[in-house]
Amino acid sequence: MSGRDVLVVGGGISGASFAFHAARAGRKVLLVEKSERVGGCMNSIRSDSGYWFELGAHTCYNSYGALLELIEASGQMENLVPRGKPVLRFLDGDQPVRGKNLGLLVKLFGKLEILCALPKWFAAKPSGLSVRDYYSRLVGPRNYARVLGPMLSAVPSQCADDFPSDMLFKKRERRKDVMRSFTVEGGLNAIVEALVAHENIEVRTACTANQVTRLPDGFRVELDDGSSVETGLLALAVPPNAVARLLSEASLDLAEQARKLDTVEVDSLGFSVDADRSNLPYATFFIPLADCFYSAVTRDVVPDPNRRAFAFHFRPGLTREERLARAETVVGVKRTDMSDLQERRITLPSPTIGHEQVVREIDSLLKGDSLAITGNWFAGLSIEDCALRSQSEWTRVGG
Ligand SMILES: Cc1cc2nc3c(=O)[nH]c(=O)nc-3n(C[C@H](O)[C@H](O)[C@H](O)COP(=O)(O)OP(=O)(O)OC[C@H]3O[C@@H](n4cnc5c(N)ncnc54)[C@H](O)[C@@H]3O)c2cc1C
Known about the structure:
This protein is of the alpha/beta class. It folds into two domains: 2-81 and 180-262 and 352-397, FAD/NAD(P)-binding domain; 263-349, Alpha-Beta Plaits (2-Layer Sandwich). The chain has helices at residues 13-24, 65-73, 101-108, 111-117, 131-139, 141-154, 189-196, 240-246, 252-259, 320-331, 355-366, 383-397, and strands at 2-9, 29-32, 44-46, 52-54, 60-61, 80-82, 88-92, 95-96, 181-184, 201-204, 209-215, 218-223, 228-236, 263-274, 285-288, 293-298, 307-314, 339-349, 371-373. Strands 1, 2, 10, 11, 12, 13 and 19 form a seven-stranded mixed beta sheet that branches. A seven-stranded mixed beta sheet has the order 8-7-15-16-17-14-18, sandwiched between helices. Strands 5-9-6 form a three-stranded antiparallel beta sheet, with no helix packed on it. Helix 9 packs antiparallel against helix 11. The chain is globular and about 65 Å long. 44% of the residues are buried. Bound molecules: flavin-adenine dinucleotide. Flavin-adenine dinucleotide (FAD) is lined by residues 9-15, 32-35, 40-42, 56-59, 157, 208-209, 237-238, 242, 268, 313, 346, 348, 375-376, 381-383, 386. Residues 9-15, 32-35, 40-42, 56-59, 157, 208-209, 237-238, 242, 268, 313, 346, 348, 375-376, 381-383, 386 line the site of flavin-adenine dinucleotide (FAD).
């Protein structure tokens, strides 16, 4: 058994942000992460040549104020790389539809349906409505089902129909001194790596936290290597189903609330190819109108003269063979052309109407507790939502 000021469970951006706040306040932090690497959904694949692409998150914006504060504090501002103009294309079967971005969206919409929906534009409010209900009012149900629904599902890499509509996009203040959209050298994972490199943080990867027990002055957490850690302050930065399991003995009320929140699994597959192998036009996102994947994201906005890379985010239930075959057909390459092939199953929150109420309940149960819970399932799924949640949880329990 070992003791620590702060134990953080989960090494994604939420856990790393929380650990960094604690570490720079002078606390000794242990961060445990189930997989072999930190980063979670921020998963940059790097080859020996220096080429990299993203299997997970790919873009940050100058509206990510809480994240930028952490980037600055960890000395990474000079590593920011501007991203080129995002280009969105639709795929109809195996073929890209001609055109791009907003122009293409307008071209694909049924015009009569849009005209009929126009009068509702002024009265429609997103609050309390699902994504499907709100956007169907704006563009008509058929336009939503055929075009806008697939596009909005590409954003969270899962069917977004039942999401609370005000959770998908948020207006935030932009920092004028920072490029509008950016990544960092070596990919976004470098942000997490730099945060947990703080001298007060010890990272243990390939280490799963199994069970939390409350002690009179803190917590004991059992790890899967048979050891346990005692800590005065515990932060859980894992998906809601993992929180429910970890707290099933220590906090029945919190576990019960976390269990109410749905999660989905997404199978991501990524690879790079020689630039001249694929005939797919330049694009940041390929959105299929109806297919077995939600989106294919590219490395095109940080171009490389020699290589291109694609990351597909598949619906659950396909075999590996089916995923590979579909990627081969869409990109127009053979398996033997693929380098840096990577596959990963990720757990994502899948919020529905009522999510906000459960989160409020969790926050009210946490009042006065030295337990922090953070993650991409509080205010929203974006990296900034994670950084903001970790910041406010740190302020509550340790600041
Ligand atoms: C494909 C994709 C693309 C995205 N693109 C963008 C984007 O461009 N911009 C943007 O802002 N957002 C994007 N997002 C969203 C954003 O990246 C994620 O919501 C965010 O990174 C989640 O961070 P997190 O730390 O909350 O969770 P995660 O990244 O899921 O981290 C949780 C970590 O906890 C670990 N863990 C779980 N259980 C245990 C346990 N018992 N013990 C120890 N460790 C455990 C997991 O292995 C994982 O590493 C994207 C998401 C995906 C999936």
